[in-house]
Design goal:
The complex is a heterodimer of chains A (225) and B (483). Chain A is α/β, with parallel strands linked by helices and 225 residues long. Chain A contains 8 helices and 12 strands. The chains are: A alpha/beta (225), B alpha+beta (483).
């Protein structure tokens, strides 16, 4: 999952982005408001973490502009402004969540997960497709009760497919959300990693739940239509 | 000690005034009545004496008293009258019936002229009396008769002294009664007056009580909100109430400013604290390589420095802003500080391609001020110029001495000047509210500089030059000898 963090305070930006990366997310950062808006409008993010007081362009301005363009991105506001009015203003302007600084990184992570679940209409913290279970909090995957050892990238790929289970996901989408260099990706790389995943998930001869849709992408589903 | 009370003072003063007035009035009335009564007594005895003068007659060679002959007709005259005749020639005396055998004091005025005086009657009562010398009258027929007989008696050779008196006891009793009436009446009037005055004072002071109640019953959150002045507030109170309202307004503004300042300060502290917290949490979230810890610690150190700087500035602002802060005022060469500060900032200016142009006076620039405070001001102004001057621009520092004042001007182009330059001196003010430049520009520097200038009786202002530059002008007392 690719997230965008727009925060001008360098130590905070570095800490939050690294923490989220270590939690398995791809995090792009922007230090100014205009850079942040440019990146957000470029698309490809599952969620934005947005500071309000930013140089060059205020966080509220970014929020308003994104919502004015009907951008459905989930946005968490990270702000030092703790007034009720500030919170109400931001939430009414279209923010999905509001966190007052200083905060615990673990809280941010939980809120990110919660918003991502909401984003992909997943209520349960542990996602299940067929006999495969994925626990985003513990970052574990098991099939039929057997733990499956995945690399960070394989996990990210499977997690993304889980979030979007039941729908066909294009290779470009996978590339943008899962791979570090999300621009101009190679479809072959995606195919290779899908192959690795299939190999690990179906090691005991279980049915393949990742279905290929020719010319469209991949579909994670219990039974192929 | 009992607190002074406006109502009590008014009551006492009005009561005292009314009391004194009543005393004077009562005394006046009493004295007038007394004089009138005694005058009446005196007139009465004078009239009686005038009548009795004609009651002594020389007849058949002897003195006869007419009033005795007509005791019936003269009853009114002699009934209760007290009078006595003394025949000075024969040394005999004749008394009115009321005197029986008692004597009145015998007196006359000089040469026998009528004289009024207070006397004591033989019965112990006091009385007013008139004493005069009289001569018997003689009828013309009697004169003819004496001439025929050849035995003419001159009435002037038969002087008599007449003393007529009147008991003044009834007058005394009347006066005593009058005194009682006046004293009682005055006391009653005074008490009634006090009650009325008290009522009037209470009604008059009601607006004060209303204002007091309004102030007393204020809840915590509206302590400094404006007074609700009634429309019918007396003119004597409206000035005070308006002044008080203005004072409350000022208090409210100060309180609001303080709250804003605290809110902004808290807000400014949140981000670096969040950075510090996030960095430590990240570092401790899992075992890491030493290099990673070093990186995180370095980040924490940087943030802590930023926080420290912010706290230091806030604390300096608070300290300098205190009323009892006493700057260390001395005379020193201002150029020395300017050169010191410029020396520190010069490399930073060069790094940003900014060209510092310093123009100092030809003579030493001695000023009277606080060395440390002046350094704070210069550092902040230069820091400001360093951050807000566009790249490849000049920054001018001009120092001049005239009219007993030293003037230091720091001017630089500035792209984003606020409309109201005075706002630059507000705590934590930023034209771009989001602009934060790691620690140095927290919106406190200029506030701190202004407070420092005020603390040493100097002035600091910002103005827009004709070229559209921003110029900070610091004026402080010059210690240069007059030219």
């Amino acid at each position: 999952m690719r997230l965008l963090l727009i925060e001008d305070h360098t130590p905070l930006r570095d800490a939050v982005s690294q923490y989220l990366r270590e939690a398995g997310y791809l995090v792009d950062t922007a230090a100014t408001g205009d850079e942040g808006l440019w990146a957000a409008e470029g698309g490809g993010y599952a969620l934005i973490l947005l500071d309000l007081m930013l140089p060059k362009m205020d966080g509220m301005e970014i929020l308003n502009r994104l919502r004015a363009k009907q951008n459905p991105l989930h946005i968490i506001i990270l702000s030092a402004r703790d007034g009720l009015e500030d919170r109400l203003d931001a939430l009414d302007a279209g923010a999905d969540d509001y966190v007052v600084k200083p905060f615990q990184l673990s809280e941010i992570l939980s809120r990110v997960r919660a918003l991502l679940r909401r984003n992909y209409s997943k209520k349960s913290p542990v996602m299940k497709v067929g006999d495969i279970e994925l626990d985003p909090m513990r970052r574990t995957v098991n099939r039929g009760g057997c733990m499956i050892d995945l690399t960070a990238l394989e996990y990210r790929l499977l997690e993304y497919l889980f979030y979007r289970s039941g729908e066909t996901v294009s290779r470009t989408n996978i590339w943008e959300h899962v791979f570090e260099d999300g621009t101009g990706g190679s479809s072959n790389t995606v195919d290779v990693y899908i192959g690795y995943l299939r190999k690990k998930l179906n090691a005991n001869g279980q049915p393949d739940l990742i279905h290929t849709r020719r010319g469209m992408g991949y579909l994670l589903e219990e039974s192929s239509p | 000690m009992r607190q002074p009370s406006l109502r009590r003072k008014l009551l006492i003063r009005c009561g005292f005034g009314v009391g004194v007035l009543l005393c004077f009035l009562s005394c006046g009335v009493y004295l007038l009545a007394k004089r009138s009564l005694y005058r009446e007594v005196d007139e009465s005895i004078s009239q009686t004496a005038a009548l009795l003068v004609n009651e002594v007659e020389l007849e058949n060679g002897s003195i006869s008293f007419e009033w005795r002959e007509g005791i019936g007709t003269n009853n009114m005259l002699i009934a209760d009258s007290l009078f006595q005749f003394w025949n000075e020639t024969a040394d005999t005396t004749t008394r009115s019936p009321s005197l029986r055998l008692l004597d009145l004091p015998k007196f006359t005025g000089p040469g026998g002229a009528p004289s009024l005086k207070s006397i004591d009657l033989p019965n112990g009562h006091s009385a007013h009396a008139i004493g005069l010398r009289i001569f018997p009258f003689v009828l013309p027929e009697e004169i003819e008769r004496m001439k025929e007989k050849g035995h003419f008696i001159d009435t002037n050779s038969l002087p008599h002294i007449l003393v007529v008196a009147r008991d003044t006891e009834p007058v005394h009793r009347t006066l005593a009664r009058l005194r009682e009436i006046l004293a009682g009446g005055s006391l009653a009037t005074l008490l009634l007056g006090l009650l009325i005055v008290d009522r009037v004072v209470r009604i008059t002071l009601r607006p004060i009580n209303d204002l007091t109640t309004q102030m007393r019953d204020r809840s915590e959150h509206q302590l400094d909100s404006a007074l609700d002045l009634p429309e019918a507030l007396p003119i004597e109170l409206s000035g005070l109430a308006k002044s008080f309202g203005l004072l409350l307004g000022r208090v409210s503004a100060i309180r609001q400013r303080e709250q804003d300042f605290i809110r902004h300060a808290a807000h400014e502290l949140r981000t670096p604290i969040a950075g510090l917290q996030a960095t430590t949490e990240l570092a401790l979230s899992k075992p890491r390589e030493a290099a990673d810890y070093c990186k995180h610690l370095e980040s924490c150190r940087k943030t802590a420095t930023e926080l420290g700087d912010l706290v230091k500035r806030l604390s300096a602002l608070s300290r300098i802003g205190q009323k009892n802060y006493k700057p260390h005022i001395i005379s020193f060469d201002c150029e020395k500080i300017i050169n010191q500060c410029v020396e520190v900032f010069q490399p930073l200016f060069v790094q940003r391609s900014l060209w510092l142009k310093l123009q100092l006076p030809s003579v030493p620039m001695m000023v009277t001020g606080d060395f440390t405070l002046l350094k704070i001001i210069f550092n902040n102004l230069l820091d400001n110029a360093l951050s807000y001057t566009p790249v490849d621009s000049d920054v001018h520092i001009r120092c001049e001495v005239f009219d007993g004042q030293a003037e230091i001007r720091i001017a630089n182009p500035c792209l984003d000047m606020p409309e109201n330059l005075e706002r630059l001196f507000e705590p934590l003010f930023r034209k771009d509210p989001a602009h934060r430049d790691a620690g140095t520009h927290l919106g406190i520097g200029l506030t701190l500089s202004l407070e420092a200038a005020k603390a040493m009786d100097a002035t600091l202002l910002a103005r827009r030059t004709d070229d559209g530059w921003i110029e900070f002008v610091l004026k402080l007392a010059s210690a240069n000898p007059p030219a």
